[in-house]
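A reminder from the course coordinator: this example appears on the midterm review sheet, so study it carefully.

Given structure:
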């Protein structure tokens, strides 16, 4: 916020002499603070664009708290049951109650998430206010484009707040600063979010430069907003347009990449599957410009033969691995039987802690698996990108796991940099080598296709839904891009195929929902999907029951409470600041 410092007034009699001898104005007593730009200096294209870049930077987080990260590895993936906190019980212990669905309103991390998103909103509002005061210092076209970018970003920040907290204060650029603390929270903000996306779609160009939002990102986000409200027919209209006509902000026609792994490769950023992303960079003087929100999310204690050398967080869940089991026909086990003992993925955890076999006797799972398992999570004996690992290029198992009994046997693999990229696509200037610089996709094209498939099911067009799902599965079935060993052989028994039919809506719905888990695991969507589908309590209590068989210390006695845990508590700090007569707490807290 702009501030001005005023010198104290001189005594009245001396002031009167000054007024007589100089002028009838005391403007010369207002001194702009050194090192800050006053409003008029920003009322031009360069100034407004600088403010807008500040709003873009808020996508990556503002206050350096990992809950602010755009990938929601805690609030979306861990809370969605596709990952565990990882490491051990004493490390970042504040996450422990959150992953057990026992969070309360005093959580500092949730308050930081709230603050970070509202800081993003404030930056967007500042852009819009400055455009309004700039007048004819900006051309009409420039003012419209910059306004559209700011409103698109504001729509994103509010969408993010809505899906986390449900009931939120809505503050736009017309609200005076003195009125901000008096704005109550309400769940009725969808119309305002939609208005921002509509304005952005109507006024942004199709090509706006890599890293900036464009009209098709706005169109995809509008479809997503409609889907979250169960407005399926309207969502379908938006997705139809995006799929048929959409291009990336740097002008590439939207399409699925042939190689799934390239979605998460920093050398391939700004690719044709990127609908809206968060840019990252190294060597900027601040590692917050890299993927600072992921700095803990590497295999543990890897040394020079593995990435990051820290810290063992964000370990994929045992149940997630099982989800990648396929039948002999290459289709997923839609009935949930992937958790049955005969279908569980063999892993060193189960052998060591259940069967009591020596780790040296471990044999890789011989049964069919979706190949995305080994692009999505690190498994013992499977090549781990281009890292040396066990000396043969494989994940070494327990050497990279901090605590098997607490966190299980798997390591994260998406958003991990390659050994060949160290110090070129990483920023090693801070306490850990684990600051990678691949972009994070808030929305990618596979996500759009699968959301469109949901809308098609509701429209009764099951065949179109099947076609969209099979587009995603056809990529997974391309054996050229499966994880390979050094001799060119497949790293595991990969068997995946396309759906021959969707016999009814219930089957189609189950297929789409599981496909989202397989395709988007670890990308922060799962919890919010379960909530909007109305199945969070059922799915997550099932997850807790299964996972606690193995991870007793972590999950014993944990449960998800329907009617409460679908949304996060309004931070008590915010209620204390604004008062209970302004902010009301969410149910159950």
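Designed residues:
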């Amino acid at each position: 916020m702009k501030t001005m410092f005023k010198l104290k007034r001189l005594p009245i009699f001396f002031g009167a002499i000054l007024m007589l001898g100089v002028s009838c104005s005391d403007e010369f007593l207002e001194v702009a603070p050194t090192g800050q730009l006053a409003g008029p200096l920003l009322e031009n294209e360069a100034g407004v664009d600088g403010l807008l870049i500040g709003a873009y930077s808020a996508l990556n987080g503002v206050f350096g708290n990992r809950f602010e990260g755009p990938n929601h590895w805690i609030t979306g993936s861990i809370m969605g049951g596709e990952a565990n906190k990882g490491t051990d019980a004493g490390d970042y212990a504040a996450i422990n109650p959150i992953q057990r669905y026992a969070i309360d309103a005093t959580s500092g991390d949730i308050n930081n998430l709230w603050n970070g998103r509202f800081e993003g909103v404030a930056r967007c509002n500042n852009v819009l206010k400055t455009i309004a005061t700039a007048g004819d210092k900006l051309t009409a076209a420039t003012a419209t484009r910059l306004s559209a970018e700011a409103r698109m970003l504001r729509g994103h920040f509010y969408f993010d707040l809505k899906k986390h907290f449900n009931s939120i204060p809505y503050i736009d650029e017309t609200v005076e600063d003195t009125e901000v603390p008096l704005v109550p929270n309400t769940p009725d903000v969808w119309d305002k979010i939609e208005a921002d996306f509509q304005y952005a779609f109507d006024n942004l160009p199709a090509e706006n430069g890599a890293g900036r939002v464009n009209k098709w990102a706005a169109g995809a986000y509008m479809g997503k907003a409609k889907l979250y409200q169960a407005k399926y027919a309207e969502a379908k209209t938006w997705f139809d347009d995006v799929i048929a006509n959409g291009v990336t902000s740097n002008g590439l026609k939207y399409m699925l990449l042939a190689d799934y792994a390239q979605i998460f490769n920093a050398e391939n950023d700004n690719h044709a599957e990127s609908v809206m992303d968060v840019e990252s960079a190294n060597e900027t003087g601040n590692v917050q410009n890299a993927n600072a929100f992921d700095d803990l999310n590497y295999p543990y204690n890897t040394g020079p033969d593995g990435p990051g050398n820290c810290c063992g967080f964000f370990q994929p869940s045992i149940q997630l691995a099982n989800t990648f089991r396929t039948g002999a026909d290459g289709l997923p086990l839609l009935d949930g039987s992937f958790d049955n003992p005969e279908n569980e993925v063999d892993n060193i955890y189960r052998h060591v802690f259940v069967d009591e076999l020596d780790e040296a006797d471990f044999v890789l799972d011989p049964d069919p698996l979706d190949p995305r398992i080994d692009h999505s999570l690190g498994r013992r004996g499977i090549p781990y990108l281009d890292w040396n690992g066990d000396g043969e290029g494989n994940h070494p198992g327990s050497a990279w796991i901090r605590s098997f009994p607490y966190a299980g046997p798997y390591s994260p693999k998406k958003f991990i940099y390659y050994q060949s990229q160290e110090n070129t696509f990483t920023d090693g200037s801070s306490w850990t080598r684990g600051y990678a610089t691949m972009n994070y996709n808030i929305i990618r094209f596979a996500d759009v296709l699968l959301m469109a498939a949901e809308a098609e099911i509701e429209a009764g067009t099951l065949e179109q839904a099947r076609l969209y799902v099979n587009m995603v599965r056809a990529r997974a079935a391309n054996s050229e891009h499966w994880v390979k060993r050094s001799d060119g052989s497949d790293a595991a028994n990969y068997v995946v195929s396309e759906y021959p039919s969707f016999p009814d809506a219930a089957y189609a719905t189950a297929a789409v929902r599981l496909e989202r888990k397989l395709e988007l695991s670890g990308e922060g969507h799962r919890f919010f999907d379960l909530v909007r589908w109305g199945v969070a309590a059922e799915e997550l209590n099932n997850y807790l029951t299964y996972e606690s068989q193995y991870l007793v210390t972590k999950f014993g006695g944990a449960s998800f409470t329907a009617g409460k845990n679908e949304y996060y508590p309004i931070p008590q700090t915010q209620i204390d600041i604004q008062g209970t007569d302004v902010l009301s707490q969410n149910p159950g807290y």
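Residues 55 and 123 are 5 Å apart (CA to CA). The mean pLDDT is 91.
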